[in-house]
Amino acid sequence: MLVMTGLxxxxxxxxxxDVGTICExxxxxxxxxxTEGLAxxxxxxxxxxxxxxxLRVLDHxxxxxxxxxxxxxxxxxxxxxxxRQAHVTxxxxxxxxxxxxxxxxxxxxxxxxxxxxxxxxxxxRLTDLLREVxxxxxxxxxxxxxxxxxxxxxxxxxxxxxxxxxxxxxxRHLGVSVCLRIGPALSDLATLVxxxxxxxxxxxxxxxxxxxxxxxxxRALRTLGKGGLPVALGGAAxxxxxxxxxxxxxxxxTNVLEEALAHFxxxxxxxx
Length: 272
Known about the structure:
Methyltransferase, Methionine Synthase (B12-binding Domains), Chain A, domain 1; Rossmann fold; 2 domains; 5-stranded parallel β-sheet; about 55% helix
């Protein structure tokens, strides 16, 4: 029994890491901005949404999307069509509905109403949907004239790819060119930094146990950028690691998107 409980807790942590959200949280009204971030794990949002009670999404559409993600392709297409008929924009779908549907799948696993297979398959399909719907907000392969360019890195071993994709979409919608790299080798980063004029780099970190390896990455970025590339660090680790800046050597530790962009001297303008 103890073995099964341990396996269950381990599996839950893996799922939670993969469905974390990292876009600025404009759907929760509360005095603080502690739920906004670069790579939050699912449990942070589950707690926040329960405390706030002010999540501005249509519950039945979120639940329908979450259930459809675990079913056949026609079911998911039908759920998306229902969202369209309710006049849900692509931006709201990417930054609000898809992350919330993923979080509710994680909650279902927590409450024994969803199987581990349902959650893993559902999150994977929601990630595919995000990439499809994100369209023009996806990461840029090259610099875009007239736009500041940010390097967004999910370090090797991290699992929150859905959250990173949401953040990339969010920044693109704010007029920022984003180069998203998941688990990149240092040689790849060397080429990128040497050929692209990044105004800054964002690194996500979900666990403080990986602060040491993250520090190596931060130092490498500084060296590659010849000391002129500012590095902002965010993620779930920010919540439980007060001295994260000292541990990693990052220039800024924050879970507020605007703070990171301001540190890069970027003025973000919302597209309409």
